[in-house]
Amino acid sequence: MKSTSIRTIGLLVIAITFLTSCVPQIQTKVAKTPIPETFQECSDTLNQAQINWRDYFKDSALVALIDTALGHNQELSIRLQEMLIYKNEIEARKGEYLPSVNLKAGAGLDKKARYTPLGASEANTEIEPGKAMPDPVPDFTLGAVASWEIDIWNKLHQANDAAAAEYLASVEGRNFMITQLITEIASTYYELLALDNQKEILQRNIQIQSNALEIVRLQKQASKVNELAVKRFEAQVFRSKSMLFQLNQAIVANENKLNLMIGKYQNGIKRHKGSILDIEEGQLQCGEPLDLLENRPDIRAAAQELQAANLKVKVAKADFYPSLGLNSGLGLQAFNPSYLLIGPESLLFGLAGDISSPLVNRRALKANYKNAGALQVKAAFEYEQKVLSAYLEVSTQVAKLQNLKEGLALRRQEVDALNQSVSIVNDLFKSARADYMEVLMTQRDALESKFELIETKKEQLISEIRLYQTLGGGWR
């Protein structure tokens, strides 16, 4: 008997060794991120990504908008539900490697043919002296049934760990969405401030042009200019007034864009009323490139996805191995309910174990294993791409901020020069030493330069926000 058991165990070991040797070979990838030690354009070791967004933004109206959006934005609410789905998946995977116990109750009726061994046996059986077995025989059962797959290859635990990694990736995905939302709100807010400033400049310019038009009309009456000059000045006023309606429409569109992001139907947006040019520029604090791995939610999510992919490869490989299951039952059974509590005659129990392994037609397992390997390689490349993209995004934004700073200084000088030119050409026109076209062209150039100065300042502020996001700030 002992030698038979040893031979059986030996055969099982041989079978398992044979089956595990038939697992196909696949290629996986180790993610490599040879990230530079420093940013070439920014050597500050401090990192502004560590600053909480409430402290980063100094405008109280902007902070209020972001705070409202984080509580009412529909996209964030949708992402939160997706996170809950991943969280529930962890519980589902955890239940697969824990024992399953079910309560069972049943009732039935059984009639055996008389001229069969079992039927003849029941007919000749007495429950008690002088009391025959009932015919047909009722059957009442009450008990518990348990089943448990022993996780001998750690497959079920690794599936649970993969689900946990995917949940953490979903959390980081929501954090990344928060950074995008904050960036979009702040950018739209500064676009709105720029439009307000341009509208104010245009209104003042319309007043100046209207005054100039009155002067030209008086000069026409004095025969100093002709009707063509009057019409050209009128056309300039009409053009500026038309631009004013375009600005009004752009303001409404940006207000509604903000309303959508904060999840409200309100009409107006409270905002800073001063000049956008008075907003101070921030300092460049980029930290070290390695900080991106910790601060960027999209990189953290990619790392979790890569971890989940690695675990899924192990799970798919373990599907080729034998599985061990235990089944047991404990309960009471009798043909009369009054006998259920009479023991030990009504007591029943059972315990069985089984081992099974895929033997024939394992193509589906091979396909799943190869797919898991391909997804792991894909996740590794995606992680590398995220790190490379993050580094280059920071580099681009830092260079852009430096160029915008130089460009903004030149824009200010241009505006000052053209403002002086307007005063000079007006004086020359009044003394008939400049024609009306010079006046119109100088006024137009001055207006365009002021608009471009506002645009440059807006781009500078938005680039600062983009840098804050690319460094990984905004989600804390």
Summary tags:
Outer membrane efflux proteins (OEP); two-stranded antiparallel sheet; alpha+beta; 4-stranded antiparallel beta sheet
Structure description:
This protein is an alpha+beta fold. The chain folds into two domains: 2-97 and 151-211 and 240-321 and 362-470, Outer membrane efflux proteins (OEP) (Up-down Bundle); 101-150 and 323-356, Single Sheet (Outer membrane efflux proteins (OEP)). Helices cover 63% and strands 11% of the residues. It has helices spanning 2-21, 53-56, 60-72, 74-96, 117-123, 155-221, 227-262, 291-295, 297-318, 363-430, 436-470; strands at residues 100-110, 126-128, 131-132, 137-150, 323-334, 347-356. The strands form two sheets. The chain has a four-stranded antiparallel β-sheet with strand order 1-4-5-6, with no helix packed on it. Strands 2-3 form a two-stranded antiparallel ribbon. A hairpin with a 2-residue loop joins strand 2 (126-128) and strand 3. Helix 4 (74-96) runs antiparallel to helix 6. The longest helix is centred in the C-terminal third of the chain and has 68 residues, at 363-430. The radius of gyration is 40 Å and the shape is elongated. The mean pLDDT is 87.
